[in-house]
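We include the pair:
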Amino acid sequence: CVQLFLLIQVILNCVALQLSLPSDPSYYAGVVELPVQVGTPKERVSAAQDVYISIIESNDTNDLDILVFPEYVLNNREVPTFVPHPQLNITPCFEPDYELFLVEISCAVRARRLYVVLNLIEKELCGPSYGSSTWNPCPANGVRFFNTNVVLDRDGRVVSRYRKTHLWRNEYKSHAVLQQPELATFDTDFGVTFGHFICFDMLFYEPAMRLLLERNITDIIYPTYWFSELPFLGAVQLQEGWAFANDINLLAADGSDPAGKTSGSGIYAGRHGRLAAGIFETPTQRLFKARVPKRGANYELPPKVLPAFSPQLVTPRLTALDTFRDYNVDIFETQLLAADFVNATQRVCHADFCCDFEVLRRLIGSSADLAAYRYRLGAYRGNETTLIRVDRSEQAVCAVFACTSDSLLSCGRLLPATASVANQHYFERIRIAGVFPAAKRRLIMPSTLDGLMLPLDVAQYKWSESPPQQQLQNTLVSLELTTPKNDLLTFGIWANYFTELPSSHNLDHLQPPPVIAPVPVPAAPGGSSNNAAGCSICAAVSCFLFLL
């Protein structure tokens, strides 16, 4: 009996040390949505440290292999920390040469025995002969800052570090950017190699796409503090669309400040859609967990069971999440549909890029006391667009999107919370198709959104590509709504062609060399210019030589 007891203890200890094995077809992941704490900068960091440790040490993380925290929430420039290079194999818990919050979290991770991904403000010393190679010049005080992911393994050791490549607006004025973007990856003891990047990086070719295409990474970690934009770039909407288009696993942890446009976290399994996700109207602390299938393993996800559809005049809406408006739609070629339309079959072309639409609705009911969205069909292909007005972009879009009136300027906006909104019709069927031009750098994804600011479940639509978008050929893409839907804000195909046109962000060190205009020559006395006088002299000399 004693021997059996000891054997059971050994087995339990092994399970506690490593929940998933390389031979297992799945692993267990968690992502945390979390608001910034209140108080002075130092008080916010101290409070965040306590929250992070309480989550790491809670019973809710007992079964997790890996846990991801959001961008921007942990610390700030008032309390930055040095971060050791992963090759040094440093464990801050017993090498406490770093800011206290990193030391304390390292110890909590070692005690809990799971992988943890943090995002923090890193500081680095720089000078004429030392420091990283960045686009930004070294500040006069010799200290620069990075927006950095830090990965701790089960021992609390720093095993990976990534410094954000594509900063957000005013971040460029306070943070440095490496001249050579990092491709950050790390291996785990449960047989999965992860890549990771931060927030706005998702909309660019490097490092995000390079990790997938050059390193064959199939599982991505994504701390973010995303600012949602309608109609195409809501937080969960983009996360699920990006994971679906690339058919990879994505662990996305967002901050939580809905009044400031930030909320939306989730765990996604490529073409299988979201395993767990949420978006909120008030600042929320929430742990999302899911068992994630390893790519190529024989792991059967439970079948999705959609609730039975019933036409509903009024459905829940999420309105307290503030959003940006996508001003790109103002240059789309669009067609406004009639308020009472039930059947629309139409081709809309922007130059030589065309989208074919079939939209079928059924009447639910109407009331003069209730407002309703109007809808437009839209097509666009070109590079006169931006990514949330931060960087230039090249896009191709075929979409049906909601507007609050018949004005194009009202598209990409929500009817206010004070309005009583009705679904006077429900969508029975939508089919959108377009030929997306071949390009070496492109990503074509479904972009869908309902009144709860969540994308439609992948079981609600059919997606096809012919040939697959990875091939360097024109690709016929179609998106078809296969189950009825009451409320709809966006249903479309959104393609990012990853423009290589530069954006200097009004930064001095990124400006191109000035073009020096030629200095005009002052006119000579008598109204003739020096050039004219010179020509007259040349002509006189020529005549003299001719006479000779």
Q: What stands out?
A: The helical segments are 2-17, 41-56, 100-112, 171-174, 205-214, 235-246, 530-547. The radius of gyration is 28 Å.
